[in-house]
Amino acid sequence: MPVALSSLILLPALLRQLPLAAKIVILTYDSTYCNDDLLGVSPTERARIAIAGVEGGEFWHNALKRPPRPTELDIVEKDATASLARIRSAHPDIAAILLECARFPLVAPAIRRAAKLPVYDITHLCRMMLASIA
User: Fold this and answer.
1) Side-chain half-sphere of 60: how many Cα atoms within 13 Å?
2) pLDDT at 76
3) CB under 8 Å to 9, separation ≥6 — which residues?
4) Distance CA 100, CA 65 (A)
5) Which residue segments constitute the domains of the chain, with CATH numbers given?
6) Which has the closest alpha carbon to 24: 39, 6, 38, 37?
7) pLDDT tens per residue across span 35-89
8) What is the pTM (predicted TM-score) of this model?
């Protein structure tokens, strides 16, 4: 199952909202850590998921340094939109984007403008939870 405070909790519900022929991309900091055990979906649903990370980009390299080096938001945006462009060229049937990295909500508006697709992130999950208890 997905980890407790991850936007991946939204994944099964988002898949059910999309047409069966459509895919969702999970955009993450490092796609090598986003394995099937974290997704919490059936094998059939897994076929509708593409995963992309920003490995190799400046944001990725800066975060690996000790101590981590801060990265300007325009660099995070550039790395995320470049990764998204690569995965979309391989999967033209992507209909929605789920941001898994906690830094990505800050650049979600730019990703939404560039992709012209619905974009979801951890802030959507937090708002749902707060609305349910408020």
Assistant:
1) 16
2) 96
3) 2, 40, 125
4) 21
5) 7-133 (3.40.50.1860)
6) 39
7) 888 888 899 999 999 999 999 999 999 999 999 999 999 999 999 999 999 999 9
8) 0.91
What is the C-alpha to C-alpha distance for residues 91 and 23, in angstroms, rounded to an integer? 8
Task: Name the amino acid, one letter, at 132.
Answer: S
DSSP string, the chain: ---TT-GGGGHHHHHHHS-TT-EEEEEES-GGG--HHHH---HHHHTTEEEEE-TTSHHHHHHHSSSPPP--HHHHHHHHHHHHHHHHHH-TTEEEEEE-STTGGGGHHHHHHHH-S-EE-HHHHHHHHHHHH-
**Amino acid, single-letter form, for residue 46:** R
Q: Residue holding tokens 């199952």?
A: 1
């090598």: which residue's tokens? 32
Contact 52, 26 (CB under 8 A): yes
